[in-house]
């Protein structure tokens, strides 16, 4: 796969490394042998999962929370990953710290879920030991009961992770010697900056627990090859009664260094590139009602305001809606971005940020997925979904709270599109354990960002720290 | 911004919208007794409304449950609230709380710990 991104001055650097040599494969069980197959054990082996815990999650930059979850000094939110818990705490100077969530006395977790530490004090509920929100110990009840040296400052202050922010998210790395965040997110963070995802805030956010491996769940969102069969209502490029076997959903796929990847349709507003008239307004309605993300109701109103003048099946309709959307944002005081081809190309695109975060930008919105192992089980994951959008300046909503956890088939809380995806995912997890099934086989044209992710994962698992 | 007055010390301070009385006191440097620092856990911040009851936002479920389960019977009463959950909607609230004062020589504050 060639990288043709013209934005970077050093294109060679964004090119993925590709299959690994002996120095990596000799250290990793069930390692990738080529880019066209993924060994099935990677999705259920306890040995592989434990290696991920030790070598991946403990050393990788990962999305820990949204910035607006902790707007004021003293606000905290807990981030849990493979049984390790951290408190993301907003500091008085506006920065964020990620404190290890364990009392230095006997290990009690100091915060659960989300909340505030009023008065800037974190208190252990067991014996009342206390820390300032920067992790410095401020009080030990009954100090006289402890021997000399047991309570030395470096023993009882709360240890921290590395923390940095990008795109409205707080990222952490447990490894204090890790390199900078932006190097790890290269080049996908730079690409997403074209649509200023940092301007967006949480509209809603919820989660589902799926009985499948975390990688299997996220890979279902790495390609649009599945759209025709999984989401027939979205496959508007042809009439449903024709027997044409041509895949008309053909975005460009790109794999990058650091395990990242993306696919983009190239400006969702251009409509069909195959000669068939696509009703863009109808398409937008299906997207909005199907997931209330990427395309929101307000985008529909703007597009409807154009449909009285230009027929929605007219190729000019797409361009006219782009004009209308940019005008709307400007008049409404909604922060936007420069109208450049690189930005419009991302509309309807799907960006994977290694190891477990996806961003799907559209207009001035973004759908985001974070997939993490759940319950210390290689065959369970927590799948979180955020709908982000840009609000008029000064009218951003307050501190967001998760709407909650809902069953995968709960039609009151999940739109048709995610329900269709979730229903396949658990069937895959069961299927890959069939006795005859040793490896998945991938389409070189559409599915190589999956193997790119696995090849980067193997390099992480082989690394010596 | 509404003001509250605390007897018997006569301390008077402002409380922001949505902010608890205890947190407002801490933010402005006053001592308000606590052990759990705002987690509705220790009951130490309990206070009694002595006047201006209508200026106080009524207690929510979390506060009521905490007082029912963890507050000793001799302290409980219809006018008793947790200052770490008590928010204020207008001027005129008068509270009674022993130990509220300007911080000086405070045994329970952020004393430095030396290794």
TrEMBL record, chain A:
Domain of life: Bacteria
Keyword Ribonucleoprotein: no
Domain Rieske: 61-172
Recorded GO MF terms: 2 iron, 2 sulfur cluster binding; iron ion binding; monooxygenase activity; oxidoreductase activity, acting on paired donors, with incorporation or reduction of molecular oxygen
Region Disordered: start-end pairs: 1-25
Keywords associated with the record: 2Fe-2S, Iron, Iron-sulfur, Metal-binding, Oxidoreductase
PROSITE patterns: RIESKE
Cofactor: Fe cation
Record Pfam families: Rieske (PF00355), Ring_hydroxyl_A (PF00848)
The keyword DNA-binding is assigned to this record: no
Polar residues composition bias: residue spans: 1-12
Transmembrane parts of this sequence: none
Gene3D superfamilies, A to Z: Naphthalene 1,2-dioxygenase Alpha Subunit, Chain A, domain 1 (3.90.380.10), Rieske [2Fe-2S] iron-sulphur domain (2.102.10.10)
PANTHER family linked: CHOLINE MONOOXYGENASE, CHLOROPLASTIC
Record-given protein name: (2Fe-2S)-binding protein
Organism (species): Acrocarpospora macrocephala
């Amino acid at each position: 796969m060639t990288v043709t991104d013209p934005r970077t001055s050093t294109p060679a650097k964004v090119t993925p490394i590709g299959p690994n040599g002996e120095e990596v494969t000799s250290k990793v069980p069930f390692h990738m042998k080529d880019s066209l197959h993924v060994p099935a054990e990677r999705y259920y082996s306890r040995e592989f999962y434990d290696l991920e815990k030790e070598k991946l999650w403990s050393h990788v930059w990962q999305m820990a929370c949204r910035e607006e979850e902790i707007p004021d000094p003293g606000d905290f939110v807990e981030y849990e990953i493979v049984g390790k818990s951290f408190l993301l705490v907003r500091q008085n100077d506006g920065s964020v710290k990620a404190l290890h969530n364990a009392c230095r006395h006997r290990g009690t977790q100091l915060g659960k879920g989300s909340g505030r530490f009023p008065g800037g004090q974190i208190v252990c509920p067991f014996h009342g030991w206390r820390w300032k929100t920067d992790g410095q110990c401020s009080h030990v009840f009954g100090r006289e009961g402890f021997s000399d040296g047991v309570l030395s400052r470096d023993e009882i202050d709360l240890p921290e992770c590395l923390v940095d922010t990008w795109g409205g998210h707080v990222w952490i790395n447990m490894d204090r010697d890790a390199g900078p965040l932006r190097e790890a997110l290269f080049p996908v963070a730079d690409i997403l900056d074209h649509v200023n995802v940092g301007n967006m805030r949480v509209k809603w956010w919820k989660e589902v627990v799926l009985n499948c491996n975390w990688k299997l769940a996220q890979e279902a969102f790495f390609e649009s090859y599945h759209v025709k069969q999984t989401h027939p209502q979205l496959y508007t490029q042809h009439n449903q009664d024709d027997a044409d076997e041509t895949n008309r959903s053909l975005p460009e796929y790109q794999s990058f260094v650091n395990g990242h990847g993306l696919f983009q349709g190239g400006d969702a507003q251009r409509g069909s590139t195959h000669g068939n008239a696509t009703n863009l307004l109808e398409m937008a309605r299906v997207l909005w009602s199907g997931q209330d993300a990427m395309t929101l109701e307000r985008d529909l109103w703007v597009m409807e305001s154009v449909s009285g003048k230009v027929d929605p099946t007219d190729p000019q309709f797409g361009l006219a809606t782009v004009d209308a959307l940019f005008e709307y944002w400007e008049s409404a005081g909604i922060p936007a971005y420069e109208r450049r081809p690189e930005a419009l190309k991302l509309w309807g695109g799907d960006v994977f940020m290694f190891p477990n975060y996806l961003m799907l930008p559209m207009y001035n919105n973004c759908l985001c997925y974070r997939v993490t192992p759940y319950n210390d089980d290689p065959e369970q994951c927590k799948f979180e979904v955020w709908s982000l959008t840009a609000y008029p300046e000064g009218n951003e909503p307050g501190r967001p709270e998760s709407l909650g956890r809902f069953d995968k088939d709960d039609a009151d809380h999940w739109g048709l599109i995610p329900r269709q995806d979730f229903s396949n995912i658990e069937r895959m997890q069961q299927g890959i354990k069939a006795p005859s099934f040793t490896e998945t086989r991938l389409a070189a044209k559409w599915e190589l960002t999956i193997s790119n992710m696995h090849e980067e994962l193997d390099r992480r698992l082989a690394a010596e720290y | 911004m509404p003001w509250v007055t605390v007897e018997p010390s006569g301390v008077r301070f402002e409380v922001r919208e949505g902010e608890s009385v205890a947190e407002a006191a801490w933010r402005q440097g006053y001592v308000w007794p606590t052990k759990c620092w705002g987690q509705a856990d220790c009951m130490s911040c309990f206070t009694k409304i002595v006047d201006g009851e209508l200026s106080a936002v009524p207690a929510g479920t979390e506060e009521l449950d905490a007082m029912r389960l963890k507050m000793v019977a001799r302290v409980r009463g219809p006018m008793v609230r947790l200052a770490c959950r008590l928010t204020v909607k207008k001027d005129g609230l008068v509270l009674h709380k022993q130990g509220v004062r300007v911080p000086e020589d405070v045994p329970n504050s952020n004393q430095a710990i030396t290794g």
